[in-house]
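A.,

Following up on our hallway conversation. C-alpha cells first:
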C-alpha cells in the first residue's frame, strides 16, 4: 500500500490576501488519499514563505526521511506553489527526494515527473509563483523608492531619531533626546578635524549614546542627520539626495565638513611611550649606528640605580642617561633668546609676517571669485539644458556638485569674516616661551618635558656621544634661531640691532608658519 506524507503550507500574507487556510488543504488532501487508497503516515503544517527551502518543518521532514528510508513513498500537497516558489531550488529538491525514494506530487496539478515532456509543464507551474513573487518584490521596491523621493524615511529610525505615527496614520521620524543632542555634538566635534573618530565615539558612549562602533562608523555618513534622504543608484538614475520631511539635527554645511574630514584624514598609529623621570628622551633618540629607536632602562648598582639609553640591536650602543640629558639641556640653551629683547623680536616677526603672509583680504577675494565661478557654472549648465545640449541627469550632477562646493565656500567666507586672527598675542607667548625655554624644561614634569621635545624636534634626535643632531627642528624655533644669527645677538648690542633691522627685514628669506599654526 502506498504511503504518503501530507505537506500543508501557508504564509501569513497568502492567508490574508488569497484565503488559503491549513484546514481546507488538509481536507482536500485527506479526501484524495481516501479515494486513492493511500495511507497517510504524517501531516506536516508549515507557516513559512516558499522563497527557499529553509523552512523549519520542511527541514525536520527531510531529516526524518533520511533516517527512515522506505517509510514514505509520496509527499502530497495541493499545488506546486505550496512546494516551492523558486524553480531552481525546486528542481534540486526533486532530485534530492528522488535519491531518497520519495516523489513529490501536487494533487490539483498532477504530473508524471518521469516523463521528460512533463518537465515543461512543471517549469510553468514553478515559474508562475516565482514571477508573482518577483513582481510583488519589484512593486514593493518601487513603492519604497517613490516614498524616499518624497522625503520619507523608510525603516527603523537611526540613532538620535525615533519612529512616530501622525494622527492621520502617516509614519515619520523625529529627534529623540538625549541621543539627538549627543549626535549633534558628535558632528560638531568631527567637523573640526581635531579628533579621531574612535575618540569621538568613546566620548559619545560616555555621554550615554547607545551605538556600537561599527554602526557608528556607518551612521556618521548618513545624510539623514542634515535633513536629507539618500536615493541609491538604479539603472540609469544616479545616486542623489532629496530634502527629507523630517527635522535635521545639523546643517548641511556641517555635514559636508564631516564628510571632507572622513575622506581626507589619514589613519596614523600613534605610539604611547611611557618614560621614567630619568629618561625623558626615550622614544625620541635614534641609534647613530643602526638607525633604530633607542630605548631606556635602569641598572641596579650597589647604592642606587643607573639609567641608560641603549639599542636593542646587536650594535651595542649604550649611553649614560645623565650625560645625554645634560647635553640636551645644553642644546636647548642654543635656542634661548635674551628676555630683554623679546619686545624687539616681536615687532620684527610681526613685520615679517605681514610681508610674507599678507592680509586676509586676498583669501576672501579668492573665495568670492571661486563662489562666483560655481554660480556661473550652474547658470551655464541651465542654459545648455534649455537648449537641449545637455542631458537632465548631467545637469543634476553638475548642479549637485556645484551646490556642495558653494555651501563649503559660504561657510569658509563666514569664518574668514568673523574669526580674525590676532597674531601679536601668539608671537608674544611664543617669544616668552623661547626666552625661558631652559627654565621651562627644567621645571616641567615628565609629560611637559616630552611635549617640549616633540614640539621642537618633530623628526627626533641622534646622539653621537658628544652632541645631539637632528635633520629638522620646529619652524618657529628655526625662525628665532635665524633672527638671532642674522642680528648677531651675541656680538651686538640692542642699538646695533635696531640699526640693522630695516635691512634684515627687507631682505629676509625666513618662512613663517601660518597664523593658525602653533608656535
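Then the amino acids I'd put at each of the 519 positions:
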Amino acid at each position: 500500500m502506498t504511503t504518503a506524507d501530507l505537506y500543508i503550507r501557508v504564509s501569513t500574507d497568502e492567508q490574508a490576501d488569497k484565503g488559503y487556510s491549513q484546514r481546507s488543504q488538509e481536507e482536500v488532501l485527506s479526501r484524495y488519499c481516501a479515494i486513492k487508497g493511500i495511507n497517510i503516515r504524517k501531516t506536516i503544517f508549515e507557516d513559512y514563505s516558499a522563497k527557499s527551502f529553509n523552512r523549519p518543518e520542511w527541514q525536520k521532514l527531510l531529516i526524518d526521511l533520511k533516517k527512515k528510508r522506505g517509510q514514505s513513498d509520496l509527499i502530497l500537497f495541493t499545488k506546486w506553489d505550496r512546494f516551492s516558489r523558486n524553480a531552481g531550488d525546486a528542481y534540486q529538491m526533486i532530485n534530492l527526494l528522488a535519491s531518497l525514494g520519495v516523489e513529490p506530487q501536487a494533487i490539483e496539478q498532477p504530473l508524471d515527473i518521469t516523463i521528460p515532456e512533463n518537465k515543461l509543464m512543471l517549469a510553468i507551474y514553478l515559474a508562475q509563483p516565482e514571477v508573482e513573487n518577483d513582481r510583488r518584490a519589484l512593486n514593493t521596491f518601487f513603492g519604497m523608492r517613490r516614498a524616499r523621493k518624497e522625503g520619507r524615511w523608510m525603516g527603523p529610525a537611526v540613532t538620535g531619531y525615533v519612529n512616530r505615527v501622525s494622527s492621520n496614520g502617516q509614519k515619520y521620524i523625529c529627534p529623540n533626546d538625549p541621543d539627538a543632542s549627543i549626535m549633534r555634538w558628535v558632528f560638531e566635534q568631527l567637523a573640526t578635524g581635531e579628533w579621531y573618530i574612535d575618540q569621538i565615539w568613546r566620548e559619545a558612549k560616555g555621554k550615554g549614546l547607545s551605538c556600537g562602533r561599527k554602526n557608528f562608523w556607518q551612521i556618521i555618513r548618513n545624510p539623514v542627520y542634515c535633513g536629507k534622504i539618500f536615493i541609491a543608484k538604479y539603472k540609469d538614475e544616479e545616486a542623489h539626495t532629496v530634502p527629507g520631511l523630517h527635522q535635521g539635527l545639523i546643517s548641511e554645511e556641517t555635514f559636508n565638513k564631516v564628510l571632507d574630514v572622513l575622506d581626507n584624514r589619514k589613519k596614523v598609529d600613534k605610539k604611547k611611550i611611557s618614560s621614567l623621570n630619568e629618561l625623558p628622551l626615550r622614544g625620541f633618540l635614534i641609534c647613530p649606528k643602526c638607525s633604530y629607536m633607542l630605548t631606556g632602562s635602569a641598572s641596579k648598582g650597589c647604592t642606587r640605580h643607573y639609567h641608560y639609553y641603549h639599542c636593542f640591536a646587536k650594535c651595542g650602543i649604550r649611553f649614560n642617561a645623565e650625560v645625554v640629558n645634560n647635553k640636551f639641556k645644553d642644546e636647548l640653551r642654543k635656542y634661548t633668546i635674551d628676555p630683554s629683547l623679546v619686545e624687539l623680536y616681536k615687532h620684527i616677526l610681526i613685520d615679517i609676517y605681514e610681508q610674507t603672509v599678507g592680509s586676509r583680504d586676498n583669501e576672501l577675494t579668492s573665495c568670492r571669485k571661486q563662489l562666483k565661478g560655481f554660480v556661473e557654472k550652474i547658470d551655464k549648465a541651465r542654459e545648455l539644458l534649455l537648449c537641449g545640449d545637455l542631458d537632465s541627469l548631467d545637469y543634476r550632477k553638475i548642479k549637485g556638485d556645484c551646490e556642495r562646493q558653494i555651501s563649503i565656500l559660504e561657510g569658509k567666507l563666514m569664518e574668514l569674516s568673523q574669526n580674525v586672527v590676532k597674531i601679536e598675542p601668539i608671537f608674544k607667548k611664543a617669544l616668552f616661551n623661547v626666552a625661558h625655554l631652559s627654565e621651562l624644561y627644567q621645571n616641567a614634569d615628565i609629560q611637559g618635558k616630552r611635549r617640549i621635545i616633540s614640539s621642537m624636534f618633530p623628526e627626533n634626535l641622534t646622539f653621537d656621544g658628544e652632541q645631539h643632531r637632528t635633520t629638522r627642528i620646529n619652524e618657529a624655533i628655526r625662525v628665532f634661531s635665524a633672527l638671532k644669527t642674522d642680528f648677531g645677538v651675541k656680538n651686538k648690542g640692542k642699538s646695533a640691532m635696531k640699526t640693522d633691522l630695516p635691512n634684515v627685514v627687507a631682505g629676509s628669506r625666513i618662512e613663517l608658519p601660518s597664523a593658525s599654526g602653533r608656535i
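The mean pLDDT is 80. Curious whether your intuition agrees with the design.

B.
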